[in-house]
Amino acid sequence: xxxxxxxxxxxxxxxxxxxxxxxxxxxxxxxxxxxxxxxxxxxxxxxxxxxxxxxxxxxxxxxxxxxxxxxxxxxxxxxxxxxxxxxxxxxxxxxxxxxxxxxxxxxxxxxxxxxxxxxxxxxxxxxxxxxxxxxxxxxxxxxxxxxxxxxxxxxxxxxxxxxxxxxxxxxxxxxxxxxxxxxxxxxxxxxxxxxxxxxxxxxxxxxxxxxxxxxxxxxxxxxxxxxxxxxxxxxxxxxxxxxxxxxxxxxxxxxxxxxxxxxxxxxxxxxxxxxxxxxxxxxxxxxxxxxxxxxxxxxxxxxxxxxxxxxxxxxxxxxxxxxxxxxxxxxxxxxxxxxxxxxxxxxxxxxxxxxxxxxxxxxxxxxxxxxxxxxxxxxxxxxxxxxxxxxxxxxxxxxxxxxxxxxxxxxxxxxxxxxxxxxxxxxxxxxxxxxxxxxxxxxxxxxxxxxxxxxxxxxxx
Length: 461
Known about the structure:
461 residues, Amino acid/polyamine transporter I, single chain, mainly alpha
């Protein structure tokens, strides 16, 4: 008799999956990126956080509605299969397991190591940081594979811990910044927008915040292990989304109270922590940040380790008899986890070579922390269209209004990504007599990986 995954997680764990996977690293290191993209313009930066947050709330609300209708093995893959058919469900699953989840996981391993390294004065791309990144990645894999229940408790604990530095900076940063005058000065500062365009800066900042807001869909990966999933999953998505938006906006404002925008653009959020809480307090809060990032890494590892199982459980993909095996001792899909670890390692190496060095891959250097996220938003669109067409037994709001808003949100994200990672780099490179169009070369890599997935499945059939 084939072993199956047990329903071992409750509502609180599901909410922690949403909040804990989304809040973790992006809010800390993307705050600096947002200021860079906006030239230090706080109002445009806050607008970017709010707009992307609204898009996340809209899309997560739509998937919360889907969660009340569909339930099988792996959330978003189930929704894709139910709306667009078995083949599209397979394409989504293949993309998630070989591009999206591992790319995000590899980046999070590095981000966790980066903030750990800052405690000891290591550079962002120092050898020590990359070694720690590998150790964090392997450690997260071991935790999830050997003890999935412990991994769930770890997710819950890190979610609580990670809210400490965010809450402290949001409250204390605003108070200190207001008293010292740093906050009003940052808001009133006249800046020079990159490219001279407010709209261009806003689009670039929105794309930068996408990484920070992404991760909510990861919660759907534990669908088969969630108690009462048709009730608990939509509740977790809805509550978690609003917690995240509030935390991000308040934190961003609080950071601006701890240091000048020039210092934040040059040195990142740790500068604000040290200025407000002193060197010792800053170090303690940095440790909280590391734990926060490790919680996000754990949440992504939960998803990536179950990726091949979600495919094999449908009798699709390569070696289905191998990847759908569940270890009776740990109730974990060990073979699927090994695949997830391997692909995550490859994507981490790519991120290092493409983004932390002069560029190992020539024209094929692109940001693997952002483009896969926007690709997933594009892949939601056919699902939403088919939902409108098929679901005739739901009300007008759930059938038309919410999915149409979600389609608009997805289209906006795709346009913003093309503008930020395609048009802007092209124009900048052209001015220097060069050629650069990262989106195009990312799509080539995407096409090759997806093509392999199609060929594998065709051979199987």
